[in-house]
Amino acid sequence: MSNPPTEYYSAERWQNWIDRIKDEEIDPEDEDSARLLLNLQDDTAIAIAKIVADYDDGELEQEAALAEIEDVREVVLGEVDIEDEEKLILVDGVQTSLVCVFFAAEEYVANGPAEEGTVTDYLGAAADAEAEENLDAALGYAAQAGTLVIDDEELDMGVAEEFEYGLVTEWINGLDSLQSAMSDPEVVEEDED
C-alpha cells in the first residue's frame, strides 16, 4: 500500500514540459504547439486517472488517494517560471482547465459519483452559476459533472459550444482530457516530436 510520492506525477515531470514550452516557438494556431499544450494537460489528467483507478481498485486508501491528488495539484497549479507573457497565458489556460479535474477527482474519492443528474445537467448548472458570477458554485457543479465522467458517463464536447466562453468551457476542456485519460490511461511521451 505504500507508494513513493512521485509514482503518479513529479515536479520534475511538470518542469520538463514547462522547459519544452519555454524552448519552443509556441503558436496556439499551430498544430504542433496546440498538441504540446494538450499533451501537457493530458499528461496531468492521466496521473489523476491513475490515482482514481488505484483508489477504485482498492490499491489506495481514501486518505492516500486524496493526498496523491493534492500532491499533483500542488505541482501543476504552482506558479510557473516563464518570462514569455504569451506562453505564460497558454500554460495558465492549461492550469485553469485542470482545476476542475482535481476537484472532480477529490469529490469522487471523498463522496463517489454524483447521484442525480447527468454530465450535461451539471455543466448547464455550472454555466448558469458562472453567468451569475457564482464561481464557487460553478466549480462545484463542474466537479460533480467530473465525478460522472470518472464513473464512465459520456461527456459530449458539443455541450461546450452552447456556453459562453469562460471558466466553465475551460473546465470542460479539462474534463475532456480526464475522459480520455479514464478510457486510455497511457502515458504521454514527453519526448515526442
UniProtKB/TrEMBL annotation:
InterPro entries: UCP022079
UniProt-listed Pfam families: DUF2150
Organism: Natronococcus amylolyticus DSM 10524
Organism placement in taxonomy: Archaea, Methanobacteriati, Methanobacteriota, Stenosarchaea group, Halobacteria
Name of the protein: DUF2150 domain-containing protein
